[in-house]
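ugh ok fine here u go
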Amino acid sequence: MTDYSQSRRKMVDNQLRTNDVTDHRILDAMEEVPRERFVPASKKSVAYIDEDIPIGADGGGRVLMKPHIFGKMLQLADIRADHVVLIVGAGSGYSSAVIAKLAASVVALEEDEALFNSASESLVELGIENAVVVDGPLTEGYASEGPYDAIFVDGAVELLPETLTKQLKSSGRLVVIEGQGGAGVARLYQKSGEAVSSRFGFNAAVSLLPGFAKSEEFVF
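structure:
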């Protein structure tokens, strides 16, 4: 059995620290969670490269995002030990496993059946008891367990639905990557009462989550 602990240490030292991820809770969590458990068997040898790794079986564009982008998004989210967090796009469960070490509880939403099953199994196998994977449309969020202290959108969107920001508590924070390719940026949304404001975080790019593309506009 391959020992990936050295790979995790190198990921933290060479990809996270060098990209200004300085929160020790995030560094410790990402060094502890076995990233190789959340990628297809054929990708285990490259589980720790700083690249997006395809995780969907149907070529649907779902990926495990680059470690340094993920780490910077977590830092922007500022998740605390008493927070209840919603993850939109649980994927194979990696983000759920890491965030479960930062928060009180995690609700991880996934609509792809294969990914839902994979994420659920991995969390059980790793003994992570404060995170649950739930099934439903990503664009709808999961209001029944909200409102949330933080929402982490694990992928890119072209348009962020108001449905998600409505599920934040007052003072809650939502982190997402908006746009695709070279135009993508990580953005932080913050709620105060019923008002929602946003600010630029950093430049980033990751695959678009299903259902979050802008509708094509009819042009005469």
